């Protein structure tokens, strides 16, 4: 079997299993261009190492390429197409220094108040009300931008007050309740914007033409609104607040509110993980470090350290608690 054929069969298998598999195919396609259409079994560690050490390759890019190749080679070794993994030793993961921006409530109000003036131009493809509801949805649910833009009208159940969110990873989905305030906002938007004959796409959030909103357009619109609102990072960071940071803000504001009300974080953090679609407690636990310093003593008392590999789904007591929410 040649490399190109192996890549195509591997990608087809991934997609047939429900994965969209777009980001993972790029490193494999790059390897095919670099090495040529050689027999899969002819690849050696030196070739792969030189490919990984391409010009201007960052640590994050190296690890992304390495993981994609590792999964690919493991797949074909399990099927006896190769006998060993032609991979160099894995680099140790570098500690990330990135810190998401946590919006204050004042900054969120600034963003919302800057939408209407910024979206008045005829060239704007998203009307002001749609973009305002989209930001409120992100802040009110902690959903990722792509999840919100993929949300379909039939996935918003106004009667039961729940929404179904589909993740782009492994075709996962979760059904979450929404608060009365957000429910009213979504219902009002639904009545005003989902008119028969004007909707070309099944998505809940639509542009002025009735089509689905692309993530690129949403991000571009957000950066323009953010600049108009004067919401910037004051810590000298080389990157400005992002639309995705509304997800982190939702989580941190929830944790802060729970601490203020004396909630048991050992129970509520798994609930937060389930709500925003995270699998491990370690991912959700990082939000504790982003809460205001004045809560540090309460955090040390309420939420002792957990092992990085512990998963909330493995605790029967937590699962019973979540089922009763």
The assigned CATH architecture of the largest domain is Orthogonal Bundle
CATH superfamily of the largest domain: Intergrase catalytic core
CATH topological fold name of the largest domain: hpI Integrase, Chain A
Class per helix and strand makeup: mainly alpha
Description:
The structure is a single chain. The chain is mainly alpha-helical and 325 residues long. The chain folds into three domains: 3-77; 105-229, Intergrase catalytic core (hpI Integrase, Chain A); 245-323. It is built from 15 helices and three strands. A three-stranded antiparallel beta sheet has the order 1-2-3. Strand 1 and strand 2 form a beta hairpin. Helix 1 packs antiparallel against helix 2 and helix 5 (105-113) crosses helix 10 (215-229). The longest helix has 19 residues, at 59-77. The radius of gyration is 23 Å and the shape is globular.
Main features:
15 helices; mainly alpha; three-stranded antiparallel sheet; hpI Integrase, Chain A
Give the secondary structure arrangement, pairings included:
Elements: H1 3-16, H2 25-35, H3 45-52, H4 59-77, H5 105-113, H6 115-118, H7 128-141, H8 145-150, E1 156-157, E2 162-166, E3 173-177, H9 180-193, H10 215-229, H11 245-260, H12 265-276, H13 281-285, H14 296-302, H15 316-323
Antiparallel strand pairs: 1-2, 2-3
Helix pairs in contact: 1-2, 5-10, 7-9, 7-11, 11-12
